[in-house]
Amino acid sequence: MSTSTLPTSTTTVTSALPAPSAASRILRYAVHTTRMTVTNVPFMVFTIALPVGMYLLFSMMFGDLDDGRARGMVMVNMAAYGGLGAAVTAGTQIQEDQRNGFLRQLIVAGLSPRSFLAGSVMAASAVIVPALLAVGLVGLATGVEATPVAFVATLAVLWLGLLPTILVGLVLGMVLKGGAAMAGGVVTMMAMAIFGGLWMPLEMFPMWMQNLGHAIPTYWISGLGGWALYGGDLPVTGLLVIGAWSVALGVLCSVSMSRAVGLTRR
């Protein structure tokens, strides 16, 4: 009797371990991608040192205007610019995953396109944080007046508002090939910074540029950051613009990802 039950017992002990859950796979990919990005020294210098240096320059030139509130807006704009650069550049890294075969390995290992997209967004969201913190802390150290609650709220609003810029980077990374993805990311980032009024007030530009600027998310990311820092009326239009861009780009990301996965499986 006891001998006949031995095979069943052995089979139970040697059964395979359960496969990792989808959430576990997303998290592991996000952590891997974040680690690879933050250890890229040129990337971190570009997304931290450049916006901090621009903040110091612009705040020295214009910071005392409007009883010092201009310095706070310079901080908001340069933090948004640093986050924009980090978001778009991190998003385009997906092209490298396609080029070196890492995407194919992930798909074979069971990571679905939706999970891959979610992990990419999580990783890009993580690498935005150092740029926002660096500019924000330098701003506080150089005279920006803000309560702790207002300061944290400002960085949080900027971080959430940058979602569509992450999706822009992902779309570019999936649509463009090789070095064109990085070049396209740089051009797009510059255009969104200029037309969004991050480098200089949009009111200084011709009316057609102002109208265009009001239709892109970076202008409203700055506006929402200023609202979080100094209060006033909530720019509801900005929420609608950012939401519309996020939905449209999310759909485009899903379509582009399905196409990329289809090509990878061939």
Structural summary, described in words:
The chain is mostly helical. The protein has one domain (22-265). It is 78% helix and 0% strand. It contains 13 helices and no strands. The protein has helices spanning 6-13, 22-38, 41-62, 69-92, 94-99, 102-108, 113-141, 148-161, 163-175, 179-195, 207-213, 217-230, 236-265. The termini are far apart.
Key phrases:
mainly alpha, disordered N terminus, 266 residues, single chain, 13 helices, 78% helix
How many distinct beta strands? 0
Helix content: over 70%
β-sheet strand percentage: under 5%
The main pleated sheet reads as: none
Number of separate helices: 13
> How do the SSEs run, as a string of H and E?
HHHHHHHHHHHHH
Shape: globular
* Uncertain residue segments: 1-15
Tell me the domain tally.
1
Q: Overall pLDDT, averaged?
A: 81
Q: Span from first to last CA?
A: 53 Å
Give a summary of the structure in a few sentences.
The protein has 266 residues and is mainly alpha-helical.
Question: What order do the helices and strands come in, and which of them pair?
Answer:
Elements: H1 6-13, H2 22-38, H3 41-62, H4 69-92, H5 94-99, H6 102-108, H7 113-141, H8 148-161, H9 163-175, H10 179-195, H11 207-213, H12 217-230, H13 236-265
Helix pairs in contact: 2-7, 3-4, 3-7, 4-7, 4-8, 4-9, 4-10, 4-12, 7-8, 7-9, 8-12, 9-10, 9-13, 12-13
